Amino acid sequence: MGKILSIDLDGTLLDNNKKIPQSTIDYLNMLRKKLNLVVISTGRSINSALDVTSKGSFADYIISDAGALIYDCFNKKVISEENLDSKDCKKVFEDAIINNCKDIKIYTNSNIYKYSREKEYEKSTIIKIDKFEDLGKDIEKITHIAVHFYNNNAVYDFMNSYSNKNEKDKKLKTTRLYLMKDYTSEYVWLDVVSLNINKYYGLLNLLKILKEKESNNFYKEDNIICFGDGSNDFEMMKYSKISVAMGNAFDEIKSVSKYITFTNEEKGVEKWLKKHESILI
Q1: For the chain, how big is the Rg over CA atoms in Å?
Q2: How far is 267 from 182, CA to CA, in rounded Å?
Q3: Strands 4-7 and 224-228: what pairing?
Q4: 225 and 241 Cβ atoms separated by less than 8 Å
Q5: How many angstroms separate the CA atoms of 251 and 240, rounded?
Q6: What is d(CA 70, CA 177) in angstroms, rounded to the nearest whole number?
Q7: What is the pLDDT of residue 244?
Q8: 272 neighbors 256 (Cβ within 8 angstroms)
Q9: pLDDT for 184
Q10: Pairing of strands 224-228, 242-245
Q11: What is d(CA 4, CA 167) in angstroms, rounded to the nearest whole number?
């Protein structure tokens, strides 16, 4: 029975220079030949994920935007996508500006938009906006939003302004905010996704698609092995049959994981897989 290897990118598969060791790529490709699925599960947008994985050349699928979008690497196309409610998105966007945010990044499956108070260099692929309506038709195609503030206190204050509400008075109906932090620093920002979206949800959605596509149960939920380090990996690590936290993972991730491996700088994913190769081939 083939395993589903669900692997986070930043802080997990990527080293601190945002590179993936060639030996890890070679090993994952070998495992794929043994009928194991390699699935990249990331909070990045699909285009960003493709950029750092050589267009997904060593993976079968990419689950991006923390579970909202599924990309078929072989056929080079999006096979599932769940978009945010545009009214909720506009509410967060305008509230963040009122509360003096630093910048707001809005992601669709084809574009990245950015509102910013700073004059800074931007990649040519990022579209600058001044108001929410500047998204045009992409208003209905948002997969996730990232909101950055100048300091962590402002992040927590903004988060609390949304969470300290009675159920009937909730500002957002079908959307949720959660805290994100890079393991290399103490800086915190907010990600905005659809209410039920997370990486484990994305994995179950992928399995459903595969079952319908293949008309069999070759890949099952009990065969998921996941690797992660950060807060948006929590559900995936908690509910997967086998979960492997990186040595550099946050304590909350280690606490719900079955195993702990080496850090991303020490090729922790590759080392764990080689040590437990008997369950894979």
Answers
A1: 19
A2: 18
A3: parallel
A4: yes
A5: 18
A6: 21
A7: 98
A8: no
A9: 76
A10: parallel
A11: 37
Question: pLDDT tens-digit profile of 228-238?
Answer: 999 999 999 99
pLDDT recorded at residue 213:
80
Per the CB < 8 A criterion, the answer to whether 84 and 193 are in contact is yes
Residues in the chain: 281
- Strand, helix or coil for residue 217: coil
Q: Look at residue 218 in the predicted model and tell me its pLDDT.
A: 80
| Pairing relationship of beta strands 69-72 and 61-64 according to DSSP bridges | antiparallel
Give the number of other Cβ atoms within 10 Å of residue 171's Cβ. 14
SS3 percent helix, strand, coil of the chain, rounded to 5, is 40, 25, 35
* Structure tokens belonging to residue 272: 């764990």
Residue ranges, the chain, pLDDT below 70? 1, 121-123, 164-170, 214-216
Burial of 21 by CB count in 10 Å (0-12 exposed, 13-18 middle, 19+ buried)? Answer: middle
Residue 29 confidence (pLDDT): 97
Give, for 80, the enclosing helix (H) or strand (E).
strand 77-81
| Alpha helix stretches (DSSP H) within 15-164 | 22-33, 46-52, 86-98, 152-163
What pTM does this model have? Answer: 0.93
Domains of the chain in sequence order: 4-82+197-279 (3.40.50.1000), 86-194 (3.30.1240.10)
Phi (first) and psi of residue 142, to 5 degrees: -75, 130
259's tokens: 């195993």
Phi-psi region of 203 (alpha: psi -120 to 50; beta: other; left: phi over 0): alpha
Evaluate whether 162 touches 172 at the Cβ level (below 8 Å): yes
